[in-house]
Design a protein that fits this description.
With 229 residues, this protein is α/β, with parallel strands linked by helices. It contains eight helices and eleven strands. The chain has a nine-stranded mixed β-sheet with strand order 4-3-5-2-1-6-10-11-9, with helices on both faces. A two-stranded antiparallel sheet has the order 7-8. α1 crosses α3 and α5 runs parallel beside α7.
Length: 229
C-alpha cells in the first residue's frame, strides 16, 4: 500500500496538481509495478481542499470532510490517467458511489484487481467524515491483506524532531510503534497508527520525491524508517 499526500502533488505550486510531479510519481509507480509487485494507492486531497481548513470559514466539519473526500477522487483520477499514459493497468475505486467515473469500493473486487496485476487507487477516504486518508490507507491495507504501508513524504524518514525546524534532529532507521507513540513522533494520525499496530502491519516512511526510492524499497533495500511492533 502506497500512501501519498495530496500536498506533494502541488510540486512548486501553491495549489492544484503539478503535471511534472504527477508524471514523476507515475514513472516511480510504473517501475515498482514492472517488478511484479501488487500495488494499491491512497492519495490525500490537501492540494485541493482539507476538511479541517473549511471549519474556520464556516463550513461544517462533516461537510468539509466530504469535500476533502471528493478532492481525493480528483487526485485519484489524475494519477490514474498519468499511470495509464505510461502503460499501467489501473482501477479507481471510491468509498462514495460515483459510477460514471470510478467503481464503488468492494473488498473482494479490489483484491481481484490486484491479483490481475492492476494498480488499484482507493479514493474518497473511508467514505466517512472525521477520518483522515492515513486512516483510509491503514484500513484498506488491512482489508486487502497488504504486506506493508509505504508512506511517501517529502522527508526521508522519521526523525527525533522536525528536521525542517531542528537541524540537530537525527533519523531513525527502525522504531517500534510503542516507542513512536511514547515519543509523540508524528508518523501518522493516532487512529491510523493504532490500526497498524493492532494488526501488525509495518509502515515504512520514505522520501517519495527522490527518484528511484520506491524501486529500491521494492527490491528490498533499506530506505527511510521502518516502524513495526
Amino acid at each position: 500500500m502506497l500512501k501519498l499526500s495530496g500536498e506533494a502533488l502541488m510540486g512548486g505550486q501553491q495549489y492544484g496538481i503539478d503535471p511534472v510531479r504527477l508524471q514523476q510519481y507515475a514513472m516511480e509507480v510504473k517501475k515498482a509495478a514492472d517488478a511484479g509487485v501488487q500495488i494499491a494507492i491512497v492519495i490525500g486531497g490537501g492540494n485541493i481542499f482539507r476538511g479541517m481548513s473549511g471549519v474556520g470559514s464556516g463550513i461544517d466539519r462533516a461537510q468539509g470532510d466530504y469535500m476533502g473526500m471528493l478532492a481525493t477522487v480528483i487526485n485519484g483520477m489524475a494519477l490514474q490517467s498519468a499511470l495509464e499514459n505510461v502503460g499501467c493497468y489501473t482501477r479507481l475505486l471510491s468509498a462514495i458511489k460515483m459510477e460514471q467515473i470510478c467503481e464503488p469500493y468492494i473488498r473482494r473486487r479490489a483484491m481481484r484487481h490486484l491479483e490481475k496485476g492492476r494498480i488499484v487507487i482507493f479514493g474518497a477516504g473511508t467514505g466517512n467524515p472525521y477520518f483522515t486518508t492515513d486512516t483510509a490507507a491503514s484500513l484498506r491495507a488491512i482489508e486487502v491483506e497488504a504486506d506493508v504501508i509505504l508512506k511517501g513524504t517529502r522527508v526521508d524518514g522519521v526523525y527525533t524532531a522536525d528536521p525542517e525546524k531542528d537541524p540537530t534532529a537525527t533519523k531513525y532507521d527502525s522504531i517500534s510503534f510503542r516507542e513512536a507513540i511514547a515519543k509523540n513522533l508524528n508518523v501518522m494520525d493516532m487512529t491510523a497508527f493504532t490500526l497498524c499496530a493492532e494488526n501488525n502491519l509495518p509502515i515504512i516512511v520514505f522520501d517519495m520525491n527522490k527518484e528511484g526510492n520506491l524501486a529500491k524499497l521494492i527490491s528490498g533495500e533499506s530506505v527511510g524508517t521502518l516502524v513495526k511492533n
